[in-house]
Amino acid sequence: MRLQTRLILLIGTLLFIIIIALTFSFERMLVMTLQKNVGSSALKIAKTVALMDVIKEAFDEENPSAVIQPIVEKIRLETDAEYIVIGNREGIRYAHPLPDRIGKAMVGGDNGPVLRGESIISEAVGTMGPSLRGKTPIYDDHNQIIGIVSVGILVKDIHESAATYRNAMIIFAAIALMVGCGGAIAIANGVKRSIHGLEPKEIGLLYQEKRAILETIHEGIIAINKEGMITLANQTALKLIDPLEKTEIAGKHVWDVIPESRLLEVIKSGHAEIDQEMVINGSMVVVNRLPIFDHYHQVVGAVSSFRNKSELLRLTEELTQVKRYTEALRSQTHEYSNKLYTIYGLIQLESYQEAMDIITHETDVHQNLIHFLLQEIPDPIIGGILIGKFNRSNELRVSLEIDTKSTFKDIPSGISRNHLVTIIGNLIDNALEAVLAASRDDKSVRVFLTDEGKALMIAIEDNGVGIAEDAANQLFEVGFSTKHEANRGYGLAIVKQAVQQLRGHISFHSRLQGGTIFTVVIPKEKESGL
Predict the structure, then answer these.
(1) Below-70 pLDDT ranges, the chain
(2) By C-alpha distance, which of 79, 78, 77, 57 is closest to 68?
(3) Among 191, 220, 246, 270, which has the minimal tally of Cβ within 10 Å of its Cβ?
(4) What is the model's pLDDT at position 484?
(5) How far apart are CA 383 and CA 240, in angstroms?
(6) Contact yes or no for 430/488 (Cβ under 8 A)
(7) For residue 54, what are the contacts with CB-CB under 8 A and spacing of at least 6?
(8) What is the Cα 186 distance to its own chain's centre?
(9) DSSP letters of 98-146?
(10) At what angle do helices 380-395 and 352-376 cross, to 10 degrees?
């Protein structure tokens, strides 16, 4: 038997015992009330009989019982009294429900007060057993006591009447408890099924675990009920909706917090929406919306998870940078393989001078580049991306020149190297694509880096096709590209996002002789705030 069923039956048993105890207490109070009411009624009947003239006059007859017995018996039957007894001053009966007891002395021993003129209610044992009596004197026309009227109700009848009520209450209580326990068990089983058979302690633990899990997720989570009221929101969601976290959104309608939300449409349709884009608080986010179903497959709410698209783009860019490093290594390997084969061929042809010239040239170029980078741009991450791009440009037959006046030694530790690599790598890639699209032989890209003053400056110059005026205003928008190819239009948007996160500024302008110069300025120190 399940624990909750045992508990319900135990509680039901305890309640039944309590009801039994209360019922017997009620029975005792009912008996006392009945005795009071029955005694009053018996006394009223006795007084009514004592005032009857025919009863008074019968006392002067030779055989009073012949007149009194029929009258009294009729009254007894009509009033449902157990007995009505009339006797003279000596206690000799003139009327009794049992005729054979007429003429015999009244018993009970409580006639004394009545013969003194009192009307009483007493409990005594008579010939018919313990009874509750109402007794009153009978007066003649001279106001003299000539007899006694005694109207009685047997005590056992009172107790039997009270016991009838008590038994009925016990039966009704037992039926009610049985129905209640059955209903409680059914409800408990239903609740148990709805909470997947979990105990309260387990539910509390799951709730704490759920809160901890939600707060470790980097995606914003919002859940609503069928009416559109927000029932759950994690800290990431709060930061995206309200960066200052001044507003508690739980309990509010979702449209009051996110007017463009489609969660209510998801509830109506019952269909999920995956990887949808929308704007929340000025930020582009990628949203997944899922309906929540109950055990009966009815939609009872919806949940939405969303993440800042710039973060996704940053992750994409980091993966892209890894791919670029791989491509740079591949191109470098390919290029050196070709040059090694060339040198090998020259040696076989005994063209030793030409082979030495190639070796000297390659050695000088790479040694000079590496020596320059080690002195002026000692950061290995930034130096690595520049060497990779240099090798890539050689493979593409594009001249990539790093300005000899460049210096990038004083980079504060608080400035993310990943952001700098994102900026430099994407701008050089865009420049390479621009010069490759130009119909000219002298394809060149020039890089200038400086850390002089209070800011870092990055300038990437190319002699490519330039930027059309109608595209200038959309250049940094997500998805915009002048190349009209799939999966393009993210590079400059990522650069813009990285520059903004470094609290910098990016600008560009076209050169008169063709091409474009992109300039990025990044402050070295954080702006002081109040």
Answers:
(1) 1-9, 12, 16, 23-24, 26-28, 30-31, 33-35, 124-131, 155-163, 165-166, 185, 188-199, 243-247, 282-283, 309-339, 357-367, 469-474, 477-490, 512, 526-530
(2) 57
(3) 246
(4) 47
(5) 35
(6) no
(7) 67, 71
(8) 25
(9) SGGGTTSBP-SS--HHHHTT--EEEEEEETTEEEEEEEEEEE-TTS-EE
(10) 150
The model scores a pTM over 0.85:
no
User: Side by side, which strands form the sheet with 455-462?
Assistant: 399-402, 444-450, 455-462, 516-523, 505-510
Paired tokens of 262: 């489609």
Spatial neighbors of 36 by CB under 8 A, at least 6 apart, are: none
- Residue 195 tokens read as 């909470």
At 156, the amino acid letter reads K
How many other C-beta atoms lie within 10 A of the C-beta of residue 529? 4
273-280 β-sheet, strand order: 230-233, 220-225, 299-308, 283-293, 273-280
Q: Which tokens hold the place of 243?
A: 């960066």
Q: Which two tokens stand for residue 205?
A: 């633990």
What is the rounded distance in angstroms from the CA atom of residue 9 to the CA atom of residue 15? 10
Helices assigned H by DSSP within 260-379: 263-269, 309-348, 352-376
Element (H, E) at 38: helix 3-50
Which residue's structure tokens are 């030495």? 356
